[in-house]
Amino acid sequence: xxxxxxxxxxxxxxxxxxxxxxxxxxxxxxxxxxxxxxxxxxxxxxxxxxxxxxxxxxxxxxxxxxxxxxxxxxxxxxxxxxxxxxxxxxxxxxxxxxxxxxxxxxxxxxxxxxxxxxxxxxxxxxxxxxxxxxxxxxxxxxxxxxxxxxxxxxxxxxxxxxxxxxxxxxxxxxxxxxxxxxxxxxxxxxxxxxxxxxxxxxxxxxxxxxxxxxxxxxxxxxxxxxxxxxxxxxxxxxxxxxxxxxxxxxxxxxxxxxxxxxxxxxxxxxxxxxxxxxxxxxxxxxxxxxxxxxxxxxxxxxxxxxxxxxxxxxxxxxxxxxxxxxxxxxxxxxxxxxxxxxxxxxxxxxxxxxxxxxxxxxxxxxxxxxxxxxxxxxxxxxxxxxxxxxxxxxxxxxxxxxxxxxxxxxxxxxxxxxxxxxxxxxxxxxxxxxxxxxxxxxxxxxxxxxxxxxxxxxxxxxxxxxxxxxxxxxxxxxxxxxxxx
Length: 485
Prior knowledge:
Blueprint: E1 6-14, H1 18-29, E2 34-38, E3 51-53, H2 54-63, E4 73-74, E5 77-81, E6 87-92, E7 105-107, H3 110-123, E8 127-131, E9 133-140, E10 145-151, E11 157-167, H4 174-179, E12 182-185, E13 190-199, E14 205-206, E15 209-210, E16 214-217, E17 224-228, E18 234-239, H5 246-250, H6 252-259, E19 268-278, E20 281-284, E21 287-288, E22 291-293, H7 308-328, H8 337-360, E23 373-375, H9 410-414, E24 419-422, H10 424-428, H11 432-440, E25 444-445, H12 451-459, E26 464-467, E27 473-477, H13 480-484
Parallel strand pairs: 1-2, 1-11, 2-8, 5-16, 6-23, 11-22, 24-25
Antiparallel strand pairs: 3-7, 4-7, 5-6, 9-10, 10-11, 12-20, 13-18, 13-19, 14-15, 16-17, 17-18, 21-22, 24-26, 26-27
């Protein structure tokens, strides 16, 4: 079957992992015509990412998947052991409810997230879904990109004309290859055997592991990590040495043996048992004309901070509103240059630290006494230069999400757009020109200034703030004149 067809969209998103599906959903909120393309007819059944932080949970709220949170696992203590099972480090990963409006850290089940967002994409009247299709070629057509696709099962061919293309097609991105990108190597490539299981029997006190806690044991031939993920699942990872044979490690018998200290082989169902190579690479550039990269296509990192997927979601929230403005003609195409200048330094903060952690796993040193538990602190990098008030030190930092007097979380009130929050006296004191500009930009001006909202703004030493759609601050003002400026 070789019939052809044509489709015309604003943005073609290639790849339906977490980043691509999140981007597609946000482009729906922007009202754009979207094509969603993925080789898989259905969501991948096995989870890849497992960790969600509070900022990402806030993005899930915008995406409309917050109802899944009831099935997430709130994280507990994360311990590092040496070869004799002596504690080297222990860190409390549960900081409770944070200023983002959600718990600090969760473990989740990625296939559920992808299933919901695939459904949203199918239901969106302006979206064309190509599940089970592959991209054969991309062609630069000047004011658009021609995306040639083929249905894998039938060999049916098609062509999509897109104003922009975003490659969210993973670490082995063909879109990145089309763009001719180079890659910066952060020197932290490691292979890990990943074993996911669903236990048939509940075990409350496993050796080295209790409740919501997780651990990693270093100073052994193959450092191992064991953690509960979205219940009732568990994940075990073994870091391989350069001379280890991947095929030997992937044998089912090896999984049974590795899990034997915690589970008998008849006590669980294997969901996954394969070796994955973790790379630590950053592509350059992230944009070539009308083609862009996001998620693992643009950057990969080891899993030790749990920030790979979270960083891809940040890419999506940063890029979608900019694409919306450019497609509608509200902003020049050069606005898209700020996507990389803002996101690349931000994600490199996580990539560098994750690479350092991966390279140090084997060299843990024990102490004679159990070290104290210290509380994990959130890493909140500032965006790189771009759409922000460079004269203000708060610009480019992540905003909080207080509740309004009616009990609503801020993002539910303002939506995925710019917002101004501040003292009514300051807001009313702005010029007519400022008021007209805010209206023309579709900015949501929050009418109330009390309780958590007031406490947050005044706690910043400000009287008003401008929040971008991706929840980062454009800037802050101390009075009406500064807000006008």
